[in-house]
């Protein structure tokens, strides 16, 4: 049976930086992938003349472009303001609802415990996603209002944390590295120089590749969920 995968990130472009090579590979293998983008990315520009409303529109379009390059089948935008994610009941409930609805086998998200993780949204999305996976999505007495929506508890099998200082699982992306770069190129509002990013992405993938014994890789902290 094909894997069902959910990728939960803070901003448009986070998934492309962190796990796009792996996602492209999983799609080729037949996986169904859902992206969950938690903020609207409305602050992600150095240009003060660009309104938040317009930037949101631009970044949504860029994210759909990247999803198309990778073969990601669904993109859900939660629409929280950029920079304003909170570890709240409402945010966690949003993620529990999506996990119970889409019922992923594997969830990819950002490692909230990365040393000096400077963007607060990244820390919060990782923490709340991990909480949503376990125990809140699994146990029926958490968020009982979702049962009334017909959303039964669901147990995720694995979490893969990217942008981690403690990677212990590596995926060979030698065949999908160019796809990853093409997906990143969709985020034109964030890419001042694609060639400079190509150099950096190659450097990162080479470091992980050396650890995995392959040319290019992405690295993750893998958590296998208890039965």
Question: How would you characterize the overall build of this protein?
Answer:
The protein is of the alpha/beta class and 227 residues long. The chain has one domain: LmbE-like (Rossmann fold), CATH 3.40.50. 43% of the residues lie in helices and 19% in strands. The protein has helices at 14-28, 52-70, 89-102, 120-136, 145-148, 177-185, 194-212, and strands at 4-9, 32-39, 74-80, 106-110, 158-162, 169-172, 217-224. It has a 7-stranded mixed beta sheet, with helices on both faces. Strand 1 (4-9), helix 1 (14-28) and strand 2 form a beta-alpha-beta unit. The longest helix is centred in the first third of the chain and has 19 residues, at 52-70. The two termini are 20 Å apart. The mean pLDDT is 95.
What proportion strand? 15-25%
Placed side by side, the strands forming the largest sheet appear as 3-2-1-4-5-7-6
Shape: globular
Total number of strands = 7
Can you summarize this structure?
With 227 residues, the chain is α/β, with parallel strands linked by helices. It has one domain (4-224): 3-Layer(aba) Sandwich (Rossmann fold), CATH 3.40.50.
């Amino acid at each position: 049976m094909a894997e069902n995968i959910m990728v939960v990130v803070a901003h448009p472009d986070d998934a492309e930086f962190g796990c796009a090579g792996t996602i492209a590979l999983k799609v080729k293998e037949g996986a169904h992938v859902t992206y969950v983008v938690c903020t609207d990315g409305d602050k992600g520009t150095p240009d003060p003349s660009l309104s938040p409303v317009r930037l949101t529109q631009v970044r949504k379009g860029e994210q759909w472009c990247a999803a198309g390059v990778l073969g990601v089948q669904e993109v859900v935008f939660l629409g929280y303001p950029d920079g304003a994610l909170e570890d709240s009941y409402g945010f966690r409930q949003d993620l529990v609802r999506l996990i119970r609805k889409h019922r992923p086998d594997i969830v990819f998200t950002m490692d909230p415990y990365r040393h000096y993780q400077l963007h607060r949204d990244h820390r919060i999305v990782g923490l709340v996603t991990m909480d949503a996976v376990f125990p809140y999505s699994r146990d029926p007495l958490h968020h009982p209002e979702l049962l009334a929506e017909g959303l039964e508890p669901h147990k995720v099998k694995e979490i893969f944390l990217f942008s981690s200082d403690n990677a212990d699982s590596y995926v060979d992306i030698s065949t999908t590295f160019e796809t990853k770069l093409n997906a990143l190129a969709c985020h034109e509002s964030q890419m001042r120089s694609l060639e400079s990013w190509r150099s950096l992405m190659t450097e990162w993938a080479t470091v992980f590749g050396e650890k995995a014994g392959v040319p290019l890789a992405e690295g993750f902290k893998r958590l296998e969920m208890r039965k």
